[in-house]
Specification:
This is Tetratricopeptide repeat-containing protein. With 532 residues, the protein is mostly helical. 70% of the residues lie in helices and 4% in strands. Among the domains are: 136 residues, Response regulator (Rossmann fold, 3-Layer(aba) Sandwich), CATH 3.40.50.2300; 112 residues, Serine Threonine Protein Phosphatase 5, Tetratricopeptide repeat. The protein starts with 8 loop residues before the first strand and ends with a helix.
Length: 532
């Protein structure tokens, strides 16, 4: 059956005008009537937010220091605007294309190389479009977020189209990971690898094992992907995560730096590198990572005020601090306010850190003025926001003329926040913890976290109680340690206050020691079973 292109909407992402014009002519001759173009990933994301496209051609190499074509798929997926019914065709050299399909869920559907010709373009498109026609019921369910129904559809399509079994298994694996069925996902990917070496299946298996807390086996599998030289950032990031979970931060940093060399414009990757480098007090690496994360996160779903404050925190922690660094720090904090207009928390945190910068520079008068401004902004925050930030607030006021007032404000906030539901639960958790009833304390902290998620203080309370609970046999130790590791991984270390950073490192080291002991015990048991 011949495919009609007259009703297809096409987006071309290419910054080379001559090549772009050539592809437009070919597509026009094939009957495509509606073609839009973008010269960058950010421009393409704007268009994808506004309209659905049937086909998207994306040039991989969009220039040095510019986001590459794979990042369009990655960021569209992260933002939730990538539709499975859209065909993504990466424009890349044939030899290089073999190295770009190691990603599990961010790989293109197909690729095409320059120079273009109508027969080549038509052949590539028709091949994948026929697959997409068959997969339409599954793609529609995925685009609607009906993942349970999508799993059932995978079974039905596998029976009807056995020749597409590998393609369908890949989609099934992605859904299983998304739904948290990690054991099923691991078994599926393992069966795929056993039949045929597929780098994306190895990555999927490694991801599933990480989610299950089986870091040593995950490490072995992910290392294989890297050893085969596949251009897969996911393999590096998940491999780095296995080393971080086992307390080997130096090796994790090394892996993330290699990943950044391969894809230097991924904000999430740069942020993870900055956080780990800060934990290891490798401040120059942290500064470079956070500054680039800020740069490449603009106009994307990865934009975060944490990157700005983490950068300034790293600048303050370095041994050298001259006038240029002072100005850079102040400018970064001003940029944070401009990047997040109308957000009182960002304004408050910015002024709080301005006071710290001036104190570091020895400009006490300016520090006092900034501290007073931060104090006034803090007073204007809602009670929940004040309770969230009262500890960093007090820490930032130390050594300024507003310190005594800040102490009084803290007592006032602590008293009033006890009336909030999450505040009550947090207090009950701390009281239970002091009584060494760790299971009850953990239950209270989990409930508080469900009401006020992503609050560092609550998360650290939760981790501390869980680690104590995990010390006792028969308390689902594996699951507790996995939850602790995930909770710590979700925190951007660089954006914490100094006391919180100290507490984070202590808990992180304790968690890594316990995870490593459990992993080594499992390995010994497995090796003993293999021998027998």
């Amino acid at each position: 059956m011949e495919i009609s292109y007259s009703d297809k909407k096409v987006l071309i992402v290419d910054n080379r005008l001559e090549d772009l014009a050539e592809l437009k002519i070919i597509l026009g001759s094939m009957g495509v009537a509606e073609i839009q173009v973008a010269s960058s990933v950010n421009m393409a994301l704007v268009l994808l937010r506004e309209k659905h496209y049937d086909i998207c051609f994306v040039l991989f190499d969009l220039g040095k220091d510019h986001k590459n074509g794979l990042q369009l798929i990655q960021e569209a997926s992260a933002e939730g605007i990538r539709q499975f019914s859209t065909v993504f065709s990466l424009i890349v050299d044939p030899e290089r294309s073999k190295l770009l399909f190691g990603s599990l869920d961010s790989s293109p559907d197909t690729y095409i190389s320059k120079p273009y010709s109508e027969p080549k373009v038509r052949f590539r498109l028709e091949k994948i479009m026929r697959v997409k026609q068959v997969m339409q019921p599954l793609d529609e369910l995925l685009d609607q977020g009906e993942l349970q129904q999508a799993l059932l559809m995978c079974d039905k399509l596998t029976q009807s189209y056995p020749a597409l079994k590998l393609y369908i298994h890949r989609m099934r694996g992605i859904i299983l990971l998304e739904e948290g069925y990690y054991s099923k996902a691991e078994k599926l990917f393992e069966s795929i690898v056993a039949q045929r070496v597929q780098p994306w299946a190895r990555v999927g298996q490694g991801m599933a094992l990480c989610h299950l807390g089986d870091y040593l086996n995950a490490r072995q599998i992910l290392q294989q992907v890297i050893d085969e030289s596949y251009f897969c950032v996911e393999a590096y990031t998940w491999l780095a995560r296995t080393y971080r979970a086992l307390g080997e931060r130096g090796e994790a940093i090394s892996l993330l730096r290699k990943a950044v060399m391969l894809q230097p414009t991924v904000p999430e990757l740069l942020g993870a590198l900055g956080s780990l480098a800060a934990q290891n007090q490798e401040w120059n690496i942290a500064v470079d990572a956070y500054s680039n994360a800020i740069r490449h996160a603009r106009q994307s779903c990865f934009q975060s005020d944490d990157y700005y404050f983490s950068l300034v925190s790293a600048l303050l922690a370095r041994s050298s601090f001259d006038r240029d660094v002072e100005e850079y720090a102040i400018r970064t904090l001003e940029d944070a306010v401009l990047a997040f207009p109308g957000e009182p928390i960002v304004q408050f945190k910015s002024r709080l850190m301005v006071a710290q910068v001036y104190r570091r520079a020895g400009a006490q008068g300016r520090a006092n003025l900034a501290a007073r401004n931060a104090f006034d902004l803090f007073c204007e925050l809602e009670l929940t926001e004040q309770a969230e930030w009262v500890e960093p607030f007090l820490e930032g006021m130390e050594g300024t003329s507003v310190e005594a007032e800040a102490q009084a404000m803290k007592q006032h906030v602590n008293r009033d926040s006890a009336a909030l539901e999450w505040g009550k639960l947090n207090i009950q958790g701390m009281l239970s913890y002091r009584k060494k009833d760790y299971q009850k304390a953990l239950s209270f902290f989990v409930q508080a976290d469900s009401i006020l998620p992503n609050n560092p203080s609550l998360t650290l309370n939760l981790v501390q109680a869980a680690l104590e609970q995990a010390r006792h046999p028969g308390n689902q130790r594996d699951e507790l340690l996995l939850q602790c590791d995930n909770a710590l991984y979700s925190i951007n270390y660089g954006a914490l206050g100094l006391r919180q950073q100290k507490r984070y490192l202590s808990l992180s080291d304790r968690c890594a020691d316990m995870v490593r002991s459990m992993a080594e015990l499992k390995r010994e048991i497995q090796e003993g079973a293999d021998v027998s």
